[in-house]
């Protein structure tokens, strides 16, 4: 039973640590956003396009909007099929070195195929 208590304790500590880490990272991101917004607003004030009060309101509004937006994890796109390659022009003839390289690769593929067949037979 003591093992279960240690497990629960470690789980709670892990949860608290994770929450602390996420809060710290969110604070850093929010701080970076505020800095960037402040720089942009300062530049607008320097150009005379907005006043200092408008700049402060703009920065506060941007930070407020960032805080209200739900955080969604980035989803990695998984292609359903291999990426298609389109040949736009076949006017160019390969150079002799490219032809040699292609021929060498073909020989390597053939050698690997033969080796694979041999291994399957054994």
Supply database-style keywords.
single chain, 73% helix, flat, 122 residues, 0% strand
Total of DSSP H or I helical runs spanning 4+ residues: 3
Q: Can you give the helix content as a percent range?
A: over 70%
| Structural shape | flat
**Overall pLDDT metric:** 77
- Which percent band covers the strand fraction? under 5%
Order of helices and strands: HHH
> By helix and strand content, what is the structural category?
mainly alpha
Rg:
30 Å
Major sheet description: none
Low-confidence stretches: none
What's a quick, concise take on this entry?
With 122 residues, the chain is mainly alpha-helical. The chain has a domain at 2-70.
Describe the structure.
The structure is a single chain. It contains three helices and no strands. α1 (2-47) packs antiparallel against α2 (52-68). It is mainly α and 122 residues long. The model has no long low-confidence stretch (mean pLDDT 77). The chain is flat, with a radius of gyration of 30 Å. It has helices at residues 2-47, 52-68, 96-121.
List the helices and strands and how they pair.
Blueprint: H1 2-47, H2 52-68, H3 96-121
Helix pairs in contact: 1-2
